[in-house]
Amino acid sequence: MWVDPEADPRNVGGSSPEGELATLTDFLTDYRLTLRMKCDGLDAEQLARRSVPPSTMSLLGLLRHLAEVERDWQNWITTGDPAPRLYGPKDSDFDGAVADAAVVAAAYTDLAREQAATDALLAGHDDLGERLGRQQIPVRELLVHRIEEYARHSGHADLLRERIDGRTGQ
């Protein structure tokens, strides 16, 4: 097993949260944590290691991609001018995921900052049917879409990590 079930930080409290918003938030938190767990203990070369040609996917690329996606969701929520992309044109999040400790540190910093910014924009919007931003997207849809994105990429991270050192996740 990836982590002893008794020590799994995703299983704190032992019971499910009450209510739809709390449940969705709990799932998002767990998938975010799962992705970070898949990256734990790896050096810059391992994090930047690509899956199989011609794919540019790597764990580091996933961290950068999800920071970019969080920024994109912020643009959906706000009504002002959209913030620029973090890493440049399409696919730069993966293409720029190189084996450099500074790139790795920046990716973790960017992801934490963008997650916090998205969370802050959604804080106080407890009505899951409330519509936000220029496109009037319901809060529920934003939360479910974020869960879907992290869940899908956690599956990719499982395969990438297994290729690096044979570890498989639960």
From TrEMBL:
Record-linked InterPro entries: DinB/YfiT-like (IPR034660), MST-like (IPR007061)
Q: Which SUPFAM superfamilies match?
A: DinB/YfiT-like putative metalloenzymes
Q: What is this protein called?
A: DinB family protein
Species assigned in the record: Herbiconiux daphne
